[in-house]
Amino acid sequence: MIGNRFPKAARPLLIKGARPIGFDKAFDQPIDILIGTDGRIAEVGGAIVAGDEARTLDAKGAWMSPGWTDIHVHVWYGGTDISLKPTQCGAAHGVTTMVDAGSAGEANFHGLREFIIEPARENIYAFLNLGSIGLVACNRVSELIDMRSIDIDRTIATVEANRDVIVGLKVRASHVITGGWDLTPVKLGKKLSRILKLPIMVHVGEPPPLYDDVLGLLTEGDIVTHCFNGKAGGSILEDEDLYRLAEQAAARGIVLDVGHGGASFSFDVAKAALERGLPPKTISTDLHNRSLDGAVWDMATTMSKLLSLGMKMEDVVTASTTAPRRAIGLAADGLLETGKPAEFTLFDVVDADVTVKDSQGATSTLHRMFEPRHAILGAEPIVAHRYVPPARGGDEPHACPHCGWKS
């Protein structure tokens, strides 16, 4: 793993009055955190005096969690026709670690690494697409037509040469991708994941293959993304047998990931699963240029949707921080100990009246919202905010005030 790659800062950073949440150590009152110029925690205490050389960030009682970690985004900007820039879904919106979910395959992963992962201020990892071309022309040119789409030797070699950033394999198991190829790509991906000793993330969607059959192939540590999709034939709400299979999969350690996206999250399905005791293990956005201004918006809004459906705040935080870190093999314990890299998100939970949609177009009004304030990457505090999509029907492009991107 590349770990945290924060550049050396000119001055230490003192965060004052933050309320920790989501860490393995409990705190009963706000704390101060001193971060050295090397980006590591120098001191944690009740009232730290750092001296004039340190910059001070007054958290004003905001919550501080481990850095928000989104394990399903598409940020191979310029390399695929759906990808965003990392700045559009990263630190400016409270997210410190992102995982690109299969935008690149073995044939073009070098570009994702050189032009996106390495220059980014956030930590970016990747699931390597089983299909060699990745999502170059997503859904217009399938990456998994037949065996000519897969080069097993080159895929293995690409993973071995990039184990510091590749955290698993990605397979899209849906008839709109694979036609009648059914389970074969999932079986091949699972075989390679065993060889490489990495998890596989499987996109479940319109059958075939059946969501039921996909679950039967997966083992502990593998990830099902779009777990609460509302698609006909693939929804755990409409099929009691499938629901029980999903429960059994979660019990044996398969990670159920939200993967909201533009077509893959249903309020009704998620609410029913939560009421029956089947929460997602991880919360992710599946942000891309077709979902940003549509149903998703950002990580904070996605977290707020799960909060509104009945997840406890602490569980939402865990599913957005340490749980996804564990899912991709990153350290998730002792993140507030002296000497550890400083990677945090400062946020508030505020009263709101915001109307949002799921991927099926159903609307809901959120009355409590996660509001990111700062992303902390080493000794650098980055002002963060929720993404607000442009008003429909307006003629002027919407510009994000922090990342500068215009929609």
From TrEMBL:
Pfam families given in the database record: Amidohydro_1
Binding site for Zn(2+) 2: 170, 203, 226
Site positions per UniProt: Transition state stabilizer: 172
Alphabetical UniProt keywords: Metal-binding, Zinc
Presence of keyword Kinase: no
Record-listed N6-carboxylysine modification sites: 170
One function term, GO molecular function aspect: deacetylase activity
Residue stretches making up the Amidohydrolase-related domain: 64-351
Binding site for Zn(2+) 1: 72, 74, 170, 286
InterPro entries registered for this protein in UniProt: Amidohydro-rel, Deacetylase_Atu3266-like, Metal-dep_hydrolase_composite, Metal_Hydrolase
Taxonomy, superkingdom: Bacteria
PANTHER family on file: DIHYDROOROTASE-RELATED (PTHR42717), IMIDAZOLONEPROPIONASE AND RELATED AMIDOHYDROLASES (PTHR42717:SF1)
Protein name, UniProt field: Dihydroorotase
Organism encoding this protein: Neomesorhizobium albiziae
Phylogenetic placement of the source organism: Bacteria, Pseudomonadati, Pseudomonadota, Alphaproteobacteria, Hyphomicrobiales
